[in-house]
Amino acid sequence: MAIDDEVYPRYQALQVKKPMSSVAVEPRYTPEQYLKLERAAPYKSEFIGGRIYALAGASREHNLIVFNLAGELRLQLRDRPCEAYATDMRVKCQVTTGYLYPDLVIVCGEPQFEDHELDTLLNPTVIIEVLSPSTEAGDRGYKFAHYRRIPSLQEYVMIAQDRVHVERAERRGEGWFLTELERLEDVLMLTSIGCAIPLRAIYEKVPLSDQHAPGQGPRANDDRSPRGGEHE
After folding, report:
1. What is the CATH number of the domain that holds 121?
2. What single string gives the DSSP state of each residue in 122-187?
3. The sheet that has 22-25: what strands, in order across it?
4. pLDDT per position as a tens digit, 32-47
5. In a domain? residue 50
């Protein structure tokens, strides 16, 4: 499926909207003011359109998925010129001057940082977000609108935490194309960094509300579900 602005509205259309899981802190700030405040703050906040948004906490399921992914990525990237960061590495989109905190970010090659603090990455290769009811609209909308303007970014992954569902957006030329995975037997292929992560590993120990849990076998209607079908 080609990802167009009808599905993911552009940043200009979203910058006045409040992120779904964040609490606005007034007034407007410059990027320099935000960084000074952020580096001294006891909690994390994102910076969008001149406003600062304090981030909410994460659920048990969210933390389990991030931990599972980090473990898989560590094993697969340990002998490669790549680095992976979980939750606390800030990413800047220089085009929009947005500062965001992905759940996981991977960079292959020499990482580039905004300054000597080494806490703001400029050249991510892959970004992964774990969705929740309160963050899903933002992860699909304003976050991806920022992320896709980072020239180095090749893949953007969104992972549901309450069911087996993984979406992978891949940059192809000037566009983005979507692959969906819905079975524990499927494998998330991160082609830009040469990693393959089984969904069974992603959802290990994660309680799932409306689908089968890992190790319990497929749903009755799984035979009607696509196995990682790609749509354009």
Report:
1. 3.90.1570.10
2. S--SEEEEEE-TTTHHHIIIIIHHHHTTSTT--EEEEEESSSS-EEEEEEETTEEEEEEE-STT-E
3. 22-25, 51-55, 45-48, 98-100, 90-93, 120-121
4. 999 999 999 999 999 9
5. no
The pTM of this model reads 0.80
Please say whether the beta carbons of 139 and 133 come within 8 A: no
Which range marks the domain in which residue 192 is found?
58-89+102-212
Strands 98-100 and 90-93: antiparallel
How many domains, in total, are found in the chain? 1
Residue 160: name the closest of 136, 143, 184, 176 by CA: 136
* CB within 8 Å of 200: residues ≥ 6 apart: 184, 185, 214, 215
